# Entry
Amino acid sequence: MAKASVFMAKAIDLALENVELGKGGPFGALIVQNGEILASGANLVTSLNDPTAHAEVVAIRAACAFKSEFQLTDCDLYTTCEPCPMCLGAIYWARLRHVYFACTAADAADAGFDDRYIYEQIARAPADRAIPFDSLMRDEALACFAAWSAKTNRVNY
Amino acid sequence: MAKASVFMAKAIDLALENVELGKGGPFGALIVQNGEILASGANLVTSLNDPTAHAEVVAIRAACAFKSEFQLTDCDLYTTCEPCPMCLGAIYWARLRHVYFACTAADAADAGFDDRYIYEQIARAPADRAIPFDSLMRDEALACFAAWSAKTNRVNY
# Structure
C-alpha cells in the first residue's frame, strides 16, 4: 500500500474510533511532515462544546503547538472528508502544502452535515445570506488597520 | 449611541489594544446575548501559534465554553472586520443569529491579509486551487458515515 494510503487508512481509523467513543462526528485528520505523522485530530465538537473543533482544525492546532509555529508550509493534511469552508480557510491560513481527502462534501451532506449548505452561503453577498450580515462603523474601525500598518515591530502572518 | 454601536466600539477597542500589546492582528470580536456581552476575542494567531485563533473563532470558542454548548443560536457577533471564510464557516457551525461587521474583506486585503484570496480559492473546484487537493480511498472512508448513521445514541450537531 502506498504511503498516502497508509496515512489515509490511519485517518479513517481515527474517525471510526471517534464515532465508537462518542466524542464527535465521523471525521479524522493527520498532519504529515517529511513522511512522518506530526499530529492527528478527530471531530470533538460535541464533547468539547467547540463548534470549531473539526478534525482538520484539531490536527492543525496540534501540529502548530508541536512545532511552536503558526504556519505548516512543508506539511500535508490527510482528512477523511473534503474540508468544510471553515477548515478550508484554516488550511489556507496554515499554508499547508497538499491536502488529501477521501469522502466528498456531497457525501457529508448526505450524512446530514452542513458543509454544502455553508459553501452555498459563502458564495453569496453578505446581504443575501441566511444569517443576516450588517455593516456599521467602518470608518471608525479602519483605525485598527492604520494602527497595524504603523506598528514597526508587528509579526505578519 | 445605539447599543450596536456601543458593542462595535468595544470590539474596536479590543482590536486596537491587541495591536498595542503585540498579541496578533488588528481584529476584535464580541458575542452578545440578550443585550449583554457573553465573550470577547482578539486575534491571537502569532502569540498562540494558532492559525485558527482569529478574533471571531476565539470569541465563539469562549462563548461556547461559557455556555457549555456547541451552538450559539440566540447570540449575535460583533466583529471589526468582515469575517474571513474560516470564520464565516465557524459562524454557520455555531449557528449565530446575526453578524455585525465594520471593515470589509477588501479593507483587510489592502492591509495585507489573505481574506479575499481565500474567498477566491474557496470558489474554485478542488483541482483548481493553489493548494493541491487530491482524493483517495473514498470507498473505504464511507464506512465512517455508515458507522455514524448506525449509531443510535449519536449527538448531532
Summary: Chain B touches chain A through 93 residues (CB under 8 Å). The longest strand of chain B covers residues 36-42. The mean pLDDT of chain B is 95.
